[in-house]
Amino acid sequence: MRLADSEKSRTFADRNTKERIMNSKLLKLDEPCKVIYAGGRIGRHIATLLTWEDDPEETSAEIVETRQYPVLDQGEECPAGTLMTTDLEDCRVVCSYNPANGITGTNLYWLAGIIQYDFQQLEPSGAEYILERLKVLGCQIKLPEVELKDEDGTTLLDENGKPEMVTKYDYTATLYISITKGDFEKDLSKREYIVKGNPHEGLYFESMGTADEIYSDLTYQLSVYSHYLLKGLGAVTFDTHDAMLADVLNRLNADQGIETNYRDIL
Predict the structure, then answer these.
(1) Which residues have C-beta within 8 Å of that of residue 187, sequence separation ≥ 6?
(2) C-alpha 60, offset from chain centre
(3) CB atoms near residue 157 (< 10 Å)
(4) How many CB atoms lie within 10 A of CB 172?
(5) Is residue 105 a contact partner of residue 140, using CB atoms and an 8 Å limit?
(6) pLDDT tens for residues 74-105?
(7) Half-sphere exposure of 120 (CA within 13 A, CB side)
(8) Residue 33: which residues within 8 A CB-CB, separation 6 or more?
(9) pTM of the predicted model, to two decimals?
(10) What is the pLDDT of residues 217-260, one digit of tens each?
(11) Helices 211-225 + 246-254 axis angle, to 10
């Protein structure tokens, strides 16, 4: 890391006044830079803007009201140097450089947590934006591996006598479902829900609305994961323990050639 050559700026007052003085300094980061999520945007973290205030009434050299804001390079069509107004503490690292293999990357479970965090924002950017921008930035996403088994479920061994590992392409998405509107509505098409997945399963799903709206949302999210991650080679079995939205789950699974027979209780 190194401080930029620019001097700190005083923007609000002179030291002879009683007002606090705002200062700033640009901290440029050395390569290789981490790829971070900041305020709904994905980019290489190339610098940090530090701001702080001096209080003229303080006899000590105490620094107050410190803030840190990331500066991003979002790649390709986006000029480098975008200053984000999101405090650095609210940002998340998505990809890091691994000196052992020279790759900047992340793993599927970490990525699922980032997508879950995105859903928690006031204006989520969505998985498609995140995955497309990671592709643009050359961030590799490592899928988990599982033991290769034969038709009888016996683990196959490699030439060294160790379990043969293959990339995992089939996943389960367990949905946690709550009713948000219309608990006593006889017409179930008017009832509204919120569904949330589990990032520890590798692919994160979330939606809210009527059953039809949720089906549409999850179908779209599944298509994004299939395109960017599964490459059309795998499937996602939707599951729940909440005995709601059975028709939605059955339809989502049937669209992939998976037969399930969930039934609603509520």
Answers:
(1) none
(2) 42
(3) 12
(4) 14
(5) yes
(6) 988 888 899 999 999 999 999 999 988 888 99
(7) 12
(8) 44, 45, 46, 73, 97
(9) 0.86
(10) 999 999 999 999 999 889 999 999 998 999 999 999 999 999 99
(11) 30
Beta bridge partners of 45: 72
Question: Using only C-alpha atoms, what is the Rg of the chain?
Answer: 24
Q: Which amino acid is at 61?
A: A
Mean pLDDT of 41-54: 93
Expressed in angstroms, the distance from the first to the final Cα of the chain is 57
Residue 8 pLDDT more than 50? Answer: no
Q: Cβ contacts of residue 253 below 8 Å, gap of 6+?
A: 237, 238, 259, 260
Grouping H, G, I as helix, E, B as strand and the rest as coil, residue 145 is: strand
Torsion of CA 102, 108, 111, 117, to 10 degrees: -160
Cβ of 201: how many Cβ atoms within 10 Å?
17
Q: What are phi and psi of 218, to 5 degrees?
A: -70, -30
Give which of 25, 1, 27 is closest to 11, Cα–Cα.
25
Tell me the two tokens of residue 101.
């293999």
* CA dist., res. 143 & res. 109, Å (int): 9
- Half-sphere exposure (CA, 13 Å, Cβ side) for 30? 2
Mean pLDDT value across residues 183-195: 83
> Are the C-beta atoms of residues 84 and 39 closer than 8 Å to each other?
yes
Q: Locate 180 and state its tokens.
A: 């948000």
Q: Which residues contact 64 (CB under 8 A, 6 or more apart)?
A: 20, 52, 53, 54, 55
Residues 6+ apart with CB under 8 A from 39: 84, 85, 86, 90, 91
Give the H/E segment covering residue 110.
Answer: helix 108-119
Both tokens assigned to 122: 């006031």
**SS3 of residue 61 by DSSP:** coil
Q: Which tokens belong to 142?
A: 């490592």
